[in-house]
Each structure stands twice: as C-alpha cells, then as structure tokens.
C-alpha cells in the first residue's frame, strides 16, 4: 500500500518542473494583464480611428515663442535650455483643412504646439541651429513633394504624425512574448503530468507481469 502511494507522489525533479511551469503560466498571465492595462490598451485606443494619408507641406515657420527643455551634462548635472518653436503645416489627402505635423506621438504629447523638438543642448544657440536646419530641410528638400503621414480623427483631428511610435511590430511583440511564456508553462505542466502518468502505468503493467 505504501509503495502504491509513493508511486503517485511526484519526485523532486518532477515537483520542480511543475513549479517552473506554474511560475511561467503566472508570469505570462500577469505580463498580458499588465501590458494590456498599461500599454497595449492605450496604444490600440491611440490607433483606433487612425490611418495613413499623403501629406503635402503648406507652410514652414518659426514662432517667436521659445520652449524650455532639460539637458544632462553628467550624472549629477542637469539644466534648462530653450529652443524656438518650428511649425510645419500640411494638407492631407483625407482633408483640405491644414494640419500641424509632428515627429511622432511622444513629441506630440510633450509639446503639441511645435512640429519638432531638438535634442536638448546646453547652448540655446545650438538648439536654434538644429531647429533652423530642420526648417531648411522641410522647405528645400521636401518642399511640395508628397510623403506618408499618420492621423487619428478621434483623438487629434488637427494633428498628423510623421511616424508612429506604436506600430504593428511593437504591438505584435507586446502580445507574442507573454503568450509564448504562458504556453511554455502550460506545456511543461502537461508534459510532466503525462510523463508521471506513463510512469505509473508502466509500473502497474510491470507489477501485473510479476504476479
């Protein structure tokens, strides 16, 4: 009777495999839940109602207003500099109304009034030169040539983005790796249970042969 009970108990190695499997299952579920609430859901909402269009530059101008940015010059060295505001107004193939162009969603959130935020340098003059270089780029190199831009009619109907921060590849990886972790955990648990079940059956068949 004692031997029969012992045969149904998991060995130390099997117990570790089961714990690893359940740990991976829990990690995968928590990752999916956390990413879904904190990142994936806002990203999908941001993409909802959006799409791509062809944009054409209408006007490129610098406003008199300057905005503050924070630069870093070392581990314990931080300061504030200023940069001029560049606005690039475009017309999209979806609408005749002018829209303000932004680099991406992140820069749109940081400064919705400007089209370009330069890397923050300690010297205000360097920031101004970076903005002026970008202004020449849009005026001389792009000019009237159409280019692809992205919009969201629900969240920002008067703004368009040059590129998306949350593209399909990022969203795929956001969902794929937690799912893979969950499935690997399930596979480990199932294989451990199946291996134990086969071992018990093999032991039972062996006992019958000896009887």
Automatic annotation (TrEMBL):
GO terms for biological process: detection of calcium ion. It is a multi-pass membrane protein. This is KCMB4 protein. GO terms for cellular component: voltage-gated potassium channel complex. One of its GO terms (molecular function) is calcium-activated potassium channel activity. It comes from the Eukaryota. Its main location: membrane. InterPro entries: K_chnl_Ca-activ_BK_bsu. The chain crosses the membrane at residues 20-42, 175-199. Keywords: Glycoprotein, Ion channel, Ion transport, Membrane, Transmembrane, Transmembrane helix, Transport. The gene is Kcnmb4. It is found in: Membrane.
């Amino acid at each position: 009777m004692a031997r029969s009970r012992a045969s149904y108990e998991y060995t130390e190695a099997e117990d570790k495999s089961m714990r690893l499997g359940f740990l991976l299952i829990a990690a995968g579920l928590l990752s999916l839940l956390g990413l879904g609430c904190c990142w994936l859901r806002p990203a999908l909402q941001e993409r909802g109602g959006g799409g791509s269009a062809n944009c054409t530059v209408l006007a490129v101008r610098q406003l008199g207003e300057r905005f503050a940015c924070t630069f870093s010059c070392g581990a314990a060295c931080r300061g504030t500099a200023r940069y001029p505001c560049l606005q690039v107004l475009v017309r999209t193939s979806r609408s005749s109304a002018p829209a303000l162009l932004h680099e991406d969603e992140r820069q749109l959130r940081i400064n919705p009034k400007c089209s370009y935020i330069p890397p923050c340098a300690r010297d205000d003059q360097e920031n101004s030169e970076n903005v002026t270089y970008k202004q020449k780029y849009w005026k001389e190199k792009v000019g009237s040539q159409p280019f692809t831009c992205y919009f969201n009619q629900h969240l920002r109907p008067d703004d368009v983005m040059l590129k998306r921060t949350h593209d399909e590849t990022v969203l795929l990886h956001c969902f794929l790796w937690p799912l893979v972790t969950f499935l690997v955990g399930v596979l480990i648990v199932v294989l451990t249970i199946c291996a134990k079940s086969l071992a018990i059956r093999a032991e039972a068949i062996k006992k019958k042969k000896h009887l």
